[in-house]
Amino acid sequence: MKSTWFKDSVVYQIYPQSFQDSNHDGVGDLKGIQSRLDYLNKLGVDVVWLNPIYTSPNQDNGYDIADYRSIQSRYGSMDDFDELLADMHEHDLKLIMDLVVNHTSDQHHWFQESKKSKDNPYADYYIWRDPVDGHEPNNWGSFFSGPAWTYVPERGQYYLHLFADGQPDLNWENEKVREEVYDLMRFWLDKGVDGFRMDVINLISKPAGLPDAPQAPDAPYGNVEQAVANGPRVNEFLQEMNREVLSKYDIMTVGECAGTTPDEAMHYANLDDTELNMIFQFEHVNLSPNENPALTKWNDEPIDLVELKQVFSRWQTELDGKAWNSLYWNNHDQPRAVSRFGNDTPEYRELAAKMLGTILHMMQGTPYVYEGEELGMTNVHFKQLSDYEDLESINAYHQFVDEEQLVDSQTMLNYLEDRSRDNARTPMQWDDSTHAGFTDATPWYGVNPNYTDINAKAALADDESVFYYYQKLIQLRHDSELIRYGSYRLLDGDNPDVYAYEREYNGQKLVVLGNFTDQTLVYGAVEQTQGKLLIGNYDDDQGETLRPYEAKVYLVDAE
Ligand code: ISL
After folding, report:
1. 463-521 residue pLDDT tens
2. From atom 16 of ligand 1, which residue's Cα is the shortest distance away?
3. What domains lie within the chain, and their CATH numbers?
4. Residue nearest to atom 7 of ligand 1 (CA)
5. CA angle, 157 as apex, 154 and 163 as ends, to 5°?
């Protein structure tokens, strides 16, 4: 396998408004990020992915971009950005930007022009359709509830928005639109940024004729992900983007691709480098959906470990030697890893966070750490609707409780507590001072009350912290081709309590074990006692006894 830097890197994701405020307005900003680069160096990560920082009305926290070439003023100026990028490079950190080009904001001047008439220069930049019998052109529902179409009287037409009404979808069939996108990409790459995370990039090519989507019996609209994901021209568009732009720079790319299987990933993330370097697949984070398909992801059931192992193992083995994986437990759209997949009670939180880190960081692929994950930050456990900020959560509550009456209020609040994106968006917990050292003003969003115990200052003062454990996991990966490139084999797949797998490379083998329960188990199915313990989350090794949430990694000679 050819070694390239994206394969050898660990990426740290920063949600700018929640990372570090520097100018006392309660919102994180670029100078705040710059003040924390030493912290990132200490952790040992190689690349930073910044969620969108461009000018935006923030209907969807920056994923609705009004100007791709300017910095949103609450984050700072373009000079601040240039300084941050230079300082990151000084710190040996690469920077990848969020590229959101499935849609723009409705405030973008392209859309402001487009909606005026059917014959202006931007008329065809978006996806406009005539009403059908006085209604929406098809049954598509928005990812954020309600129909995916909004009527504009000036044009007498509907425009398509797979997300909020303020996020109109760009028309990728229009060559001019594609050229605009390639141009804005060059603008950032010529500044020296090191790549892109591409938002919902597998939704850019819509099926010809925009046919109705499959619709679950109780669901008010058709499932737009099933209708649009991995559309007819998406690979062609990405190949064109690769030829025109990506291939001309030494950068990394990761495409966000919900609803994608390993077979499709072979194209997107192929090793010949004709499209992207890797994708974010969603199969593990979409486990334990509601049994009523109309409610999709909204649920509060724990995951089934056997299913989780099947998902990861399929991606690990099917992509091996053909495409490259990204590895993540959580991000700004997902609940906190330790709460969703582990155990966030005070007794087990740190053990579970380290165990999850071990299982993920020993796999083949590029690991992503979401801000605060390295501290074992937890879900916020909100109890009432007024605590939520994210439009996805708020709209889903109204749709399923008030309009469709598919669930009662308390049940939906339980679902939000478990799955809401807001769990990931509370401010970074730096220390135990007011507002956790994130800001000295009123924060734009409340700090998780557990910040007095869970914070970076406490973690840095404790040799046994989740932080230092992650530091060691990252160091091990940097030092080991076996961890980066070894093949993967699942062990004991039916075991409902333990995740066990091996990696193998050049005559050496790793055995990775994780106890996903709060019980002490006897687990002797592998030759672990003959190997050298590389890392573990207890301070001694009791051989076949696996204590609650224990994780161990052994290095053994392969036969
Ligand atoms: O999580 C989902 C819906 O609950 C996914 O199906 C969906 O693809 C995901 O939300 C897409 O996320 C990305 O695009 C959104 C933005 O709100 C997210 O923050 C971003 O990560 C629209 O730009």
Report:
1. 999 999 999 999 999 999 999 999 999 999 999 999 999 999 999 999 999 999 999 99
2. 63
3. 5-103+175-472 (3.20.20.80), 104-169 (3.90.400.10), 487-557 (2.60.40.1180)
4. 258
5. 110
- The Cα–Cα gap between 537 and 392 comes to 36
**Ligand 1: which residues within 6 Å by Cβ?**
60, 63, 100, 143, 163, 199-200, 225, 256, 258, 297, 332-333, 392
What is the tens place of the pLDDT at every residue in 186-242?
A: 999 999 999 999 999 999 999 999 999 999 999 999 999 999 999 999 999 999 999
**Cβ atoms within 10 Å of 463's Cβ, excluding its own:** 8
Q: Specify the ligand 1 atom closest to the Cα of 143.
A: 3
Catalytic residue, from 199, 225, 283, 502: name it: 199
Residue pair 182/145 in contact (Cβ under 8 Å)? The answer is no
- Ligand 1, residues 15, 18, 199: which to mutate, most atoms within 8 A of Cβ? 199
Q: Are 252 and 262 in contact (CB under 8 A)?
A: no
Please name the residue that has the structure tokens 């995916």: 148
Categorise residue 212: left if φ over 0, alpha if ψ from -120 to 50, beta otherwise.
beta
Rounded to an integer, the average pLDDT of 118-140 is 97
* pLDDT for 437 beyond 60: yes
**Angle, alpha carbons 192-197-203 (nearest 5°):** 135
Neighbours of 191 (CB within 10 A): 14
Residues ≥6 apart with Cβ < 8 Å to 125: 110, 111, 113, 114, 170, 171, 174, 176, 177
CB 296 within 8 A of CB 289: yes
The pLDDT of residue 1: 46
Four-residue CA torsion sign, 111, 115, 116, 117: positive
308 C-alpha to center of ligand 1: Å? 21
Tokens (6 digits) for 506: 């050049």
- The CA 62 to ligand 1 mean position distance, Å, reads 12
Cα gap 323→277, rounded to integer Å: 8
Query: 64 CA distance to ligand 1 centroid (A)?
Result: 12
Atom number of ligand 1 nearest to Cα 259 = 6
Burial of 70 (0-12, 13-18, 19+ CB in 10 A): middle
Supply the residue whose CA is at minimum distance from atom 11 of ligand 1.
Answer: 200
Of ligand 1's listed atoms, the one at least distance from the Cα of 285 is 1
92 is annotated as an active-site residue: no
Q: Which atom of ligand 1 is nearest to the CA of 203?
A: 8
Q: What is the CA 222 to chain-centroid distance, rounded?
A: 25
